[in-house]
Amino acid sequence: MLIVSAPRTQVWAAFGEDLEKPKPEFTREGDIITAKLIPRAKSTSVSIQFQVSGGDLIDVESMDFKEAARPGVDNKDFKSELFVIKIDKVSPGGEARVSITSNFFTSSTEYWVFNPTSKEPWVNADAQNISLPDLVQKMTISVKDGGPFDSDGAVNGRITFEGGPKDSFWGYALGTLFIRFFGIFLVLSILMIGMIISGRVFQMLDKKKAKEILSQPKAPAPDIQPAESVEPELAAAVCAALHLHFSAHRPTTTPHFIKPEISPWVRQGRERIMNARSILTNRSNRLQNR
Amino acid sequence: MSWDQVFELIKSILLTQTGIPNLEVGQVIMILISFFFLYLAVAKEYEPLLLVPIGFGIFLVNFPLAPLMGFTEHGDPELIRAFYKYGVQWEVIPCLIFLGLGAMTDFGPLIANPKTLIIGAGAQLGVFITYCGTLFFGFTLKEAASVGIIGGADGPTTIYLTAMLAPQLLGPNALAAYSYMAMVPLIQPPIMRLMTTPEQRRIKMRQLRPVSAKEKLLFPLIATIFIILLIPAVAPLMGMFMFGNFMRECGVVKRLSETAQNAMMNIVTILLGLSVGATMQANVFLSWKPMLIFGFGLLDFIICTFGGILTVHIMNLFLKEKMNPLIGSAGVSAVPMAARVSQVEGQKADPDNWLIMHAMGPNLAGVIGSASAAGMFIAMFK
Questions:
Q1: Domain assignment of residue A185, yes or no
Q2: ipTM score for this prediction
Q3: What is the pTM of this model?
Q4: A122/chain B closest Cα distance in angstroms
């Protein structure tokens, strides 16, 4: 119960290191800075491009959520964590337009801004979310020097813009849950239909084969010649010869005759007598002894 | 050398090269836990083929200073770390186990009654409910998915998905999956009785049609085409499973099929069990999460059983020939234990009712269903 009542971020900390925390790597190409990272709930990396108009994009850094943690704001909603965007050469009190582009965003992704100096530290930036080809989304935000989104709070021609893309955690979790669960039904239903069809085809083929076999004319019975009649004396002689031949190949181990209700001494004596007799009656032994 | 120096040397050797001074309480607890699982495996015969190597793996890695799960100075993996890295982390062993399982499986009951595939899908209900439930307890999405799949009652699938999404939970997830699979005869019957009336339990099903060898031969090809086209992410697991089954059914590679079923399965089972057990070192395992996982694992199994039976009840609303709802619980893919449980419960209601072959259909469908659920999760996080 203690775990349930604790805020989720604290629960995470209780369970050890946050292994899914994104670790972005930044590269610069002209005036575009690209962050490459593996967001939470993904196994492959995504790229997020940052671009500014109305100023110079100096740097983009990642920011630990712990610095911006406030009640009512959940880290899980920020799958790509937070960024600090530094803009320079903005006309004092003027506006710069920040564009953040990625195919990781959806049309419902929002950009939330953190300003520790403001009464409400976390605010929705109401970004303009434009859909581009290849499932790419571009969010554009107007930031005023010294305005509510500028965390340095000063009208000085420099803007420090802290925040991150936000997607509803539970919306994502439950939405994909229903899609995936019913997806399994869909997949197995399609397989079931395939199996029913192939089963019917095989049953039809088996029936056809059975009909063909039944409709074929019966082959004539092969000629069986009657056996030669043999004299009884000859048959008896052959049988005796076979018996003598096979009994000559019997193993030489002698049988043991045991009656459990008799005393051990009597039993041993009887065994010795019977063993001696069986040696004498064994034809192959007699032949060897000769 | 003076006596002081000698004593210093002995003390240094004792402290740095022997385990006794470095033994921690957590490690002692883990060794005792390993004894418990070895007892379950040996004395109670609960899934011994896996619980023995897992239990022994836990036992071995919880000795201090033992060079088993670390890396050498040159960065090479030590013994069990090598098994883990090249077998589990690289996803090789779970796929090989599926190859062996496919070679052991006769899909005849499923081919004869393909409707039971829907039961296999319905029995994955617990997977997704547990997935949601664990999110409330602070698990991440990936961790929640890896805990949810426990209810699919498929050890290799659980290990495959967990190693991919949340390797830090591999030990507790695998232990929970195999322990509860062994306890299916204890867990399922009360739910089966709760969800069915005596009259429903006495439903007799028509004998399954005979399935020709050609059908059994073509099934792995047809199933592979459908499943992998729809869920490409499940190709490693399902592909190997169906390959194993094809080797069995084609009849021209008996040596390979027998090797897959016997020698190969035994070898990979040993390596898998040791590797999984070895992930449960005291500093990793002794926290709230494994206990939550065990609790959720049990709930998962219960809801999956419920889901399977519920699916049969729903299907019976549309079918002329009713199915016995007891076979719904066999959608939990503990093959063939869950099917046996259906048989036993069916015979308690009517000694003349033989449900085992009818229950094997959903049982095998559950294997495909749980692998599909794993594929869905993998695709979700790609």
A1: no
A2: 0.86
A3: 0.77
A4: 22
